[in-house]
Design brief:
It is built from four helices and four strands. It is mainly alpha-helical. The protein has a four-stranded mixed beta sheet with strand order 2-1-4-3. The longest helix is centred in the middle third of the chain and has 82 residues.
Length: 242
C-alpha cells in the first residue's frame, strides 16, 4: 500500500466523523424546537380547557343570579296579589308568577347541563396540569442534556478539525487537491479498497495490469471508473502454530 493512502484513509475517517458531528450540532436545535412546540401545544390545550371551565362557571353564576332575581320577583308579585281587587288582576299576577317559575325551571335545567359539562372539563384541567408539570420538567432536563451534548460535540469538532489540518499537511499539495476534488464529487467515500480485483466503491473490475501495479504500492493510483483513490490489502494467512 502506498504510504499516502494510510493518511488519506485517516483524513477520510476524520471527514466522516466531522460531517456526522456537524449534522448532529445542526439538528439538536431543531429537536429542541420540536419538543418545545409539543409542550406549547399542550399548554394551549390546557389554557383552552381552563377558559371553557371558567366560562362554564361564569354562565352558572349568571343563571343563579337570574334565579335569585326571579324568586325576588315572585315574592313581590305574591305580596301584590294579596291586594288584588279583581279576578283579572289576580290572574295577571298569577300569570307573571307562572312565567317567573317557568324561567327558574329553565335556568335550573341549564345549570344542570352546565354542571354535567363541567365535570370532564374539570378532570381534564387537573390531569393536564399534573401532566404539564411533569412534561415541563422533562423538557427542561432534555434541553440541559442537549446543551451539554452540543458543547461536547463542538469541543470534539474543534479537535477533529485540528487533526484534519495536521493530516492534510502530511500530503503533497497535488494529493490534497485530488482528495478535495473526489470528496466534493462523491460526498462520501474518497478512498476505496480493492477486493478480488474490484473497486469496492463502484464495483467495477480493474484491468489485470492495473491491478498488478496497484499491488506493488509504488504509486498513488485512482480507480479508472469512479476516480477514487485505490488501495489493496493483501490477505492475511493464519498458520496453525499448535
Amino acid at each position: 500500500m502506498h504510504p499516502d493512502v494510510q493518511v488519506i484513509n485517516h483524513i477520510q475517517t476524520l471527514d466522516q466523523r466531522i460531517a456526522a458531528l456537524e449534522k448532529e450540532v445542526n439538528e439538536l436545535p431543531r429537536y429542541i424546537a420540536i419538543i418545545e412546540k409539543t409542550l406549547e401545544s399542550h399548554l394551549r390545550k390546557l389554557e383552552a380547557d381552563k377558559a371553557a371551565l371558567s366560562a362554564n362557571q361564569k354562565d352558572r353564576k349568571n343563571l343563579e343570579g337570574e334565579i335569585q332575581v326571579q324568586n325576588q320577583k315572585i315574592s313581590k308579585l305574591r305580596d301584590q296579589m294579596s291586594s288584588a281587587k279583581t279576578n283579572e288582576q289576580y290572574r295577571a299576577f298569577q300569570n307573571e308568577i307562572d312565567y317567573a317559575e317557568k324561567e327558574i325551571r329553565k335556568h335550573e335545567d341549564r345549570i344542570l347541563e352546565l354542571m354535567t359539562a363541567s365535570e370532564p372539563l374539570d378532570i381534564n384541567v387537573k390531569t393536564a396540569e399534573t401532566a404539564l408539570k411533569q412534561e415541563t420538567k422533562a423538557v427542561e432536563a432534555e434541553k440541559t442534556k442537549v446543551r451539554d451534548r452540543t458543547a461536547a460535540d463542538k469541543a470534539e469538532l474543534e479537535k477533529l478539525r485540528a487533526d484534519h489540518k495536521i493530516e492534510l499537511g502530511k500530503l503533497p499539495r497535488a494529493t490534497t487537491a485530488a482528495y478535495d476534488r473526489i470528496r466534493k464529487k462523491w460526498k462520501g467515500t474518497v478512498a476505496s479498497e480493492v477486493i478480488d480485483g474490484r473497486c469496492k466503491a463502484c464495483q467495477m473490475m480493474l484491468r489485470p495490469q492495473f491491478f498488478q501495479d496497484l499491488r506493488k504500492g509504488n504509486d498513488l493510483m485512482f480507480c479508472e471508473t469512479c476516480g477514487r483513490f485505490l488501495y489493496y490489502n493483501p490477505p492475511v494467512s493464519f498458520v496453525d502454530m499448535t
